[in-house]
Amino acid sequence: MAQAIQIGFVDSAQNKPSVVAFLQDSHDVVLHDLTQSYGEDSLEAEDLQIVLLIQKRRRVFTSQDIQRLRRRFPWAVLISVDSRWNEGHRRSGKPYAGVIHMRETEFRIRIERIIRILGSNSSLLGQYRPLFSPREGLHWWLSLGMADRKFVNAKKISCFGQRESISAIGDALQDKQRTVAYRPLSALKRIPIEDSTEFRVAVVRCRAEVKQLLASGWLVKAHLLVADNLTESEIGMIRRTANCQVLEKPFYNSDLLGGMGAILHHGLQRAA
Description:
Layout: E1 5-11, H1 18-24, E2 29-33, E3 50-55, H2 63-72, E4 77-82, H3 89-92, E5 100-103, H4 107-119, H5 134-147, E6 156-160, H6 163-173, E7 179-183, E8 199-203, H7 207-216, E9 224-227, H8 232-242, E10 245-248, H9 253-271
Helix pairs in contact: 4-9, 5-9
């Protein structure tokens, strides 16, 4: 049995954010709340593999806070989870040096990828360095996506949406091991819910199309929804009512593969 991943978190708002609630539902991790003591009262330096900085506003944590955590857990990867009020600071602010920044809306897919790679005993996570340049950090992150491709074992994939919206996504998924079909959104109507012969990706251009898919009941037939500008409550509602993973734009191709890998990985776990 794989050893659980040890994750610490510092919550600036101290209100049990959705990212913590999501991780508490995972059987692959053990969580440690570092908000009050930064782990100085109970944990050993080698205990944690990941430390999350959860901040609703820009630069809630000082540089001294970051250094304190880095000295306390020198082998852990530090990840800042940025809310919508804070996600633009990578363009117009001063992101923390040596910290991986994730938008709150993309956190689920990206953290699950890291957990899967840690669980497979990959050395890639240990290759991250706090002094990476932005270019080096991007290259490292994309290398994680390449390592995660082995979880995407679907042989047949269908992309539903406007052709101009789904063609690039189809190109990212196409390779020698799988085929990709392009269909309009309305084609979801004709697919039986119990059909498990293909992996289905629905791509929408606006929130109105999301509402249409939910009202018609077609969204339950899709495994992954690619959308834009959804609120956290809307994303949660889609996951609960349609049992569908959500990937928000913009994203890397590796995020797309990571979302598929998470769905297929959990499907295999449920089947087992």
